[in-house]
Design a protein that fits this description.
By secondary structure, the chain is α+β, with helices and mostly antiparallel strands. The protein has a domain at about 40-90. It has one helix at about 1-20; strands spanning about 45-50, 55-65, 70-75, 85-90. A four-stranded antiparallel β-sheet has the order 1-2-3-4, with no helix packed on it. The longest helix is centred in the first third of the chain and has 19 residues, at about 1-20. The two termini are about 50 Å apart. The relative contact order is 0.12. The mean pLDDT is about 80.
């Protein structure tokens, strides 16, 4: 496995060196025009829950946002069975 990683890195280095060797780069000047962006109201909700019997991993998250207000919580269940929950609210 280690030898495969070394070979892949060597190939990447060789290709990178070849592509840059002897080439001059020309960068065209960029002109940026910044306009303030206007977005409509923001609204979303999502959640997920993980319950993996094989590893014992149990956790999840729920979040909802409406305009500038976001609230949610995430949780996990420790190996000893204790559920830890963090709730948050951002305005």
């Amino acid at each position: 496995m280690y030898s495969k990683i070394v070979v892949v890195l060597a190939v990447i280095a060789a290709v990178s060196a070849q592509s840059h060797y002897g080439h001059q780069e020309y960068h065209q000047p960029q002109h940026y025009h910044h306009e303030e962006e206007h977005h409509g109201p923001v609204h979303y909700e999502y959640h997920y829950d993980v319950h993996d019997d094989h590893t014992g991993d149990v956790h999840g998250q729920r979040e909802a946002r409406k305009d500038d207000s976001t609230q949610g919580e995430y949780y996990l269940i420790d190996a000893d069975g204790h559920k830890r929950t963090v709730k948050y609210h951002v305005e």
